[in-house]
Specification:
The protein contains 8 helices and 11 strands. The protein has 214 residues and is α/β, with parallel strands linked by helices. It has 2 domains: 100 residues, Rossmann fold (3-Layer(aba) Sandwich), CATH 3.40.50; 108 residues, Rossmann fold (3-Layer(aba) Sandwich). The strands form 2 sheets. It has a 6-stranded mixed beta sheet, sandwiched between helices. A 5-stranded parallel beta sheet has the order 2-1-9-10-11, sandwiched between helices. Strand 1, helix 1 and strand 2 form a beta-alpha-beta unit. The longest helix has 12 residues.
Length: 214
């Protein structure tokens, strides 16, 4: 039987999708997300979220946000489910920054982010003189594990998970499946044997795994 490793805990339904196709999945969390204490205005006109984790971190706070700008389908769906108005969505942080520069450069933005955030979005906004305030609302902790056994494929859902896996494991000839371009870019530091999902959802990564091994 084909065996793959997911570097993030999957739901039973997600694992079932693989098992139904004869693929066994071992899942371990290679990163841990911890909310942080932070200070923020009570009312924010325009907020940027590049991950669902950032949205989760602000939900228990009494913060009113008029307009949200986000990266990914999951983040958008989570925002809408919690009653937020999503104005713009892109599948990469750089693409979202380009949309903001093109259509909303006269506005001021608050970026809710983690301690390991990529430079593309803030850099592009600052270069185009878009007013940006950054607030760190969670931290990503690498929880690397030494996987003694070998796998036919590895599933990565963030650049941090790639970094965490690489701390104690080799990539060798394993096929790597990535959630998006930023995760792929991190994986390319270790291997070229990469398949990247064409939608930024866990389910689409699973679809790529099934297609590859069928």
């Amino acid at each position: 039987m084909i065996e793959v490793l997911s570097t993030k805990k999957l739901t039973n339904a997600q694992k079932e999708l693989l098992l139904n196709e004869g693929i066994k999945c071992i899942d371990e969390n290679f990163i841990q997300i911890n909310p942080k204490k932070f200070k923020s205005e009570k009312s924010i006109e325009n907020a940027i979220f590049t991950s669902k984790n950032a949205v989760k971190s602000i939900l228990k706070r009494e913060i009113t946000i008029n307009n949200c700008f986000c990266v990914g389908d999951k983040t958008e769906a989570y925002l809408k489910r919690n009653g937020f108005n999503v104005v713009e969505k892109a599948y990469q942080a750089k693409a979202l920054a380009e949309q903001i520069v093109k259509k909303h450069a006269d506005k001021a933005f608050t970026l809710f982010c983690g301690n390991i955030r990529r430079e593309e979005l803030p850099k592009l906004l600052q270069e185009n003189r878009v007013t940006l305030t950054e607030i760190e609302v969670y931290e990503t902790v690498l929880t690397s594990k030494n996987m003694i056994r070998s796998f036919d494929g590895i599933l990565f859902f963030s650049p941090s998970a790639v970094e965490s896996y690489a701390q104690r494991n080799l990539f060798e000839d394993i096929t790597v499946f990535c959630l998006g371009k930023t995760t792929e870019a991190e994986a390319r530091k270790h291997t070229n044997n990469i398949i990247t999902a064409n939608r930024t959802t866990i389910e689409n990564v699973i679809v790529q795994v099934i297609k590859h091994f069928e």
